[in-house]
Specification:
single chain; 0% strand; PgpA-like_sf; 65% helix; globular; YutG-like; YutG/PgpA; 9 helices
Length: 170
Amino acid sequence: MEATKDLERYTYELLAERGVTIEDIAELVFYVQKPYMPNLKLEECRDSVASVLSKREVHNAIITGIELDKLTEQNKLSQPLQRIVANDESLYGIDEILAFSIVNLYGSIGFTNYGYLDKVKPGIIRKLDSEEGGHCNTFLDDLVGAVAAAAAGKLAHNEPNRVQHAIVEE
């Protein structure tokens, strides 16, 4: 069995290889949580992302999703799965199901954060979803959103007295 620290290191390497930094994810956390925590600092967001990325179940989800994206790029999946994943078909939904394993870490607030990020697609999520750079990111865009959603949920759960009601305008 792989050591958790080895899986964590490999997860960070895979994210970097696919053009995703911890800073990118922290910026998503800041984007989604700042209206509810006005004194939030980007460093707190980075720490929360690192905490989420230290969990073995998160490593497993990210490693699995990126591997499926890579296999799709190499045209190594059987049909019709190859076509479905390559086209990121909207009715496929397994990419979101894998992301839910991460979102689930911090309860219902993670689900609402994830839904919002998936709808709005800010920052790195938009870049990944655009297929910029020729990569298949069917799984990765959802996994990155899930890590950000979980990290935002963790912040809210750890310091509920800092959370304020806010109406976010687009």
